[in-house]
Write a structure and sequence with these properties.
By secondary structure, this protein is mainly α. It is about 65% helix and about 0% strand. The protein contains nine helices and no strands. It comes from Roseibium litorale.
Amino acid sequence: MTGETPLRADAQRKRVQILAAAEDVFRERGARVSLDEVAKRAGVGIGTLYRRFPTREDLLAATYSARFVAFAETSRTRSPHLDPSDALRCYLEELIQYSNLYRGFAASLGTVLQIGTPGCRATLGEGARLLDIAQKAGAVRPDVIFDDLICVATAISLATEQDSSPRPRIVHLVNVFLNGIGMQPNPNPPSQAPNMA
């Protein structure tokens, strides 16, 4: 559910209540918390919640939408002042930090970004744009696709979500990944693994 269809005043009020409650509960308990708890906090029945947000990912996408719009706009404004690889690096680092806002959110990142909220579309569009620019500049291998970036962002988010100060580890892991995708694959790979005996 994207929330773009106009709603009656009472429906809009309930939607706002649900999103405010979800924000609080997800921050307190993490993204995997029971949606019954979100409904209770919002003062609505679970059926009302599911009518507006049929899946957990729909609800997560809606709570993140404004953040993702701001994130994409910041990236787009910043990118002309950076070289293509640095622009992509900043995008990935910040996407991972956003993914750690709710504990457990990272596991749903790829699915959430496909929901179609304005924030999800902006985030996908910006990432694809930066990847294309980096590939045209020769900074990233041509066989890398945007889904690869999401897989790596998810893995790094999962690896760092329990850290009390995750930023240095995120920066290190993003650099390891980007250094890897900047290298050309070996045109003559070994035909078999070396004998370790």
